[in-house]
Amino acid sequence: MTDxxxxxxxxxxNAHAITDAATAGSRFVRACLRQPVxxxxxxFLRQAGRYMPEYQAVRRHHTLLEIxxxxxxxxxxTITAAEKLDVDAAIIFADLLLPFxxxxxxxxxxxxxxxxxxxxxxxxxxxxxLRTDRxxxxxxxxxxxxxxxxxxxxxxxxxxxxxxxxxxxxxxxEGGGSRNYIHxxxxxxxxxxxxxxxxxxxxxVLSQFAKQQVEAGADVIQVFDSWAGALSVxxxxxxxxPATKTLIAEIQSYGVPVIYFGVDTxxxxxxxxxxxxDVLGLDWRTPLxxxxxxxDYACAVQGxxxxxxxxxxxxxxxxxxxxxxxxxxxxxxxxxxxxxxxxPETPVENVQHVVRFVREYAAEKALPGKQHG
Length: 373
Ligand code: CP3
What we know:
Elements: H1 4-18, H2 24-32, H3 53-61, H4 64-69, H5 71-85, E1 89-91, H6 99-103, E2 107-110, E3 114-117, H7 124-129, H8 139-152, E4 157-163, H9 165-174, H10 182-190, H11 192-215, E5 220-225, H12 233-252, E6 258-262, H13 269-273, E7 279-281, H14 288-294, E8 300-305, H15 314-328, E9 334-338, H16 348-366
Parallel strand pairs: 1-4, 4-5, 5-6, 6-7, 7-8, 8-9
Antiparallel strand pairs: 2-3
Bound molecules: coproporphyrinogen III (CP3).
């Protein structure tokens, strides 16, 4: 375990050295690697989305999938959100389910219903039919990243992303969102060989997809295991951890840090840590210091403001932001974010306030003698 006081001298020396040169991009990447930074970097899950009028304006003329598949539109939406919020990192506008098409599964987004997969995967034969040789068709995401990189250069961190094997398998098998994951777990328990082949196929496609994004200039890849919290620790370890670990190691071999994110994961965190992801995303249900301590401070952490806090007044939001930063205690390796994505009715100005509060906190701490509790 690393003690905070042990790191203080190192932090001071390095912080001094990077203060002038620190761009938001280097600040974000350094934090992912648990290197000292001049202030905590901040970005938001779902920062480009329906809560933002600029996104709604584009969305009036294009479907979600059109925006994803046209690099110029995806780049525009990504850039607009990052600039409007003045965050340290831009996540490429895309969707978790895009790889389904090249694997041979048709899907659509139905208004108010979320994603619908027309012929869900239910049998070993369905798994056998899935293709892994057409990941090149996802090249439009890499092309969008190239445009975002050309725009921001090194000024902002650029995040590429993909789904994790479990979360994507659950959409494939359930045919959409789910409450109890009955079909998914049934296949997992009763057709375990087919389950493992399914996860292997997903890893094959997702690693190629992530590689395209890194080659296009993504600085970091986030792996979304949004629904991993539906699993017991035993099931996670037996049926999900091995494939996830393979995917994350593969992405790291391309030379970028990996952020591994899930929701409702308090009990899973130590097992998730065994993937050796550089950063774990924390939901808001566990205090940040408790979660980080349970991880033995062996990785960086990202989070973890409740996204619904953004409906409160600025004073309460400021207190919650400060509380999280107090719990992080300036230990290297904290990236400020929400515990899950921004929801559609969120007031944009409250998201902007959070960015300001994170900056102000750092400025206050930098003033000698000015401490707050
Ligand atoms: O800035 C950003 O983060 C936006 C890029 C982004 C989208 N989807 C665009 C999108 C990202 C990172 C995702 C990831 C994603 N997609 C996840 C994991 C993230 C998480 O919250 O845990 C998941 C589970 C999906 C699958 C998905 N896509 C669902 C379940 C839905 C429906 C959600 C709803 O509220 O209707 C989508 C649609 C979707 N993907 C939207 C956006 C902006 C909203 C729909 C729209 O614009 O029509």
